[in-house]
Amino acid sequence: MSALSLLAPSTAVVEAKAAGRPVVALESTIITHGMPYPKNLDTALMLEDAVLSAGAVPATIAVIEGHFRVGLSREELERLAQLSGGVVKASRRDLSAVVARGGSAGTTVAATMYIAELAGLEIFATGGIGGVHRGAEETYDISADLVELGRTRLAVVCAGAKSILDIGKTLEFLETQGVAICGYRTDDFPAFYARSSGYKLDHRFEGVHDLARMIRLQREIGPGGVLIANPIPEEHALDPEAIEKRIVEAVREAEQKGVKKKEVTPFLLGRIVELTQGRSLEANMALVRNNASLAGEIAVELAKL
Fold it and tell me: Is 245 a catalytic residue?
């Protein structure tokens, strides 16, 4: 059995690829583990609409009954949303185990990247990438997203790294992995809820045409992919100092409760929603929609090259 034999793309994705039309990959852990039902379903549909409005075809990726589904139907999106938290959160390391038992799973950034590249896609939109966790010098908690970015030649549009992470160490790790990082109309690496993390970027792009050219060149040069940092829209951004206080509080609670490994991120994001009276959830939805729209615009330019 080959990995390619596990691919089950939707008719819309197959037809788009055959016709040379642009396609954008979307992850599914935002549905299964990122938000409660029905907000997760509303968000999934909103992201697909954002990609469509930009002129591209959305391809939400998940593992469904032992197959790599690339492009989900409305019914599949609804089933995943209703199972919120009740299915596996699959990183790349989990894929073989889930498939072997014919299971279903939401795919993380790392797993989505792998499947998207396997399906011949070039660009993927997410909210924020995983990274080096705070206190990693003790726990060695480093997201598989960073390693995947270093070996998968895919462009990833994100609002930076989740602000619950150690962003400085995350950027150092990405540099070591050879990941090209550029800002879209920004000189600063964004911090998910905030427009700036305080870390400067080496490369800035003002338009999607030049970004598309850079993505194609990176696929030739490598070794890894392209990380396109797209700040949250200003009207939805949260105050950096205020959100940092809430993050520190949530991290302290996670440590006290012994929350570890892949459960850390969902716990922290959920607790921050509570501590911000829902403002962080609104910001999350706004930034991921913004990323899906930009990825759609870039995909259209890639199709023209």
Answer: no
Share of the chain above pLDDT 70, in %: 99
Pairing of strands 180-184, 204-205: parallel
282 CB-near residues (< 8 Å, 6+ apart): 236
Is the domain defined by 3-304 classed in CATH 3.40.1790.10?
A: yes
Which residue(s) pair with 9 in the sheet? 70
What φ, ψ does residue 110 adopt, rounded to 5°?
-60, -45
d(CA 253, CA 276): 15
- Centre a 10 Å sphere on the Cβ of residue 272 and count the other Cβ atoms it contains: 25
- Specify the pTM: 0.93
Q: What confidence tens digit (pLDDT) does each residue in 260-276 have?
A: 777 787 788 788 889 99
Given 27, 117, 122, 301, the catalytic residue: 27
Write the CB contacts of 38 (distance below 8 Å, at least 6 apart in sequence). Answer: 81
Active-site residue, 162 included:
yes
Query: Distance between CA 68 and CA 160 in Å, rounded?
Result: 27
Catalytic entry in 17, 89, 162, 262: 162
Quick one: DSSP state of residue 191?
Answer: B
Strand ranges inside 104-154, DSSP E: 105-107, 123-125
Closest CA to 59 of 110, 9, 5: 9
User: What is the length of the chain?
Assistant: 305
